[in-house]
Design goal:
13% strand, 6-stranded parallel β-sheet, alpha/beta, 2 domains, single chain, Arc Repressor Mutant, subunit A, Rossmann fold
Length: 215
């Protein structure tokens, strides 16, 4: 089993205090932190230059997001593994991380024990997603997978719903009756296996807006 001192790590976060805290926690616990960055561009440069075992990245950073750093680094065929550490709990962010094959996704509220657990899993070619979001992702990802069953008309309507456009406005925009839009909404709810409750589709669509607008 690889020892902590042999695990080289680059950390990146645009919040100086959070970056400092993560760097010190890792260093004090025996990890070999070889670089730190306060923006995505510097993080990418460090990863390409140092080729660390692991990079722990924030999502929202200047110049390049954490996701963009990962995609560009993977495009250069680096063997570095990646963990995202963020405040974002939205399923659309988690789905994006899975899409680009990021193996670790943690929330900044997670303990250092959770970080260590995630590091161990990722460097052993496993996956580790924050326990506080795993159940939510599993439930909502079923709906995302079911998007393939929507008709072209339903996809158009769902995109409008994700922008929180009202039923009346959607009907006017598409030159159809309100009753027609309501029927489409009911069909979409059934196909996505959502609860037939007021605003259930609107709330789901808004949470998953990034995935929906790219359909």
């Amino acid at each position: 089993m690889i020892t902590k001192s042999k695990i080289s790590i680059v950390v990146a976060d645009d919040h100086p205090m959070l970056l400092k805290g993560l760097f010190e926690e890792l260093t004090n616990n025996g990890y070999n932190v070889v670089g730190k960055a306060e923006n995505g561009l510097k993080a990418l440069e460090l990863i390409l230059k140092l080729k660390p075992t692991l990079a722990i990245l924030d999502v929202d950073m200047p110049f390049l997001s954490g996701f963009e750093v990962v995609e560009m680094a993977k495009g250069k065929k680096v063997e570095t593994e990646f963990i995202i550490q963020t405040f974002h709990k939205e399923v659309s962010y988690i789905a994006q991380a899975k899409r680009i094959q990021i193996k670790g996704y943690l929330l900044k509220e997670d303990s250092f024990l959770a970080i260590e657990k995630c590091i161990k899993a990722v460097i052993n070619k496993g996956e580790c997603f924050s326990e506080s979001i795993q159940n939510t992702f599993e439930n909502e990802s079923n709906g995302l997978q079911n998007l393939q069953f929507l008709s072209p008309s339903e996809i158009v309507i769902l995109k409008h719903i994700s922008n929180q456009t009202s039923t009346n406005t959607i009907a006017e925009m598409l030159c159809v009756s309100v009753r027609t839009i309501e029927k489409h909404r009911s069909n979409i709810i059934s196909k996505l296996d959502l609860e037939h409750k007021a605003n259930s589709l609107t709330n789901w669509a808004f949470r998953n807006k990034i995935s929906i607008v790219n359909l």
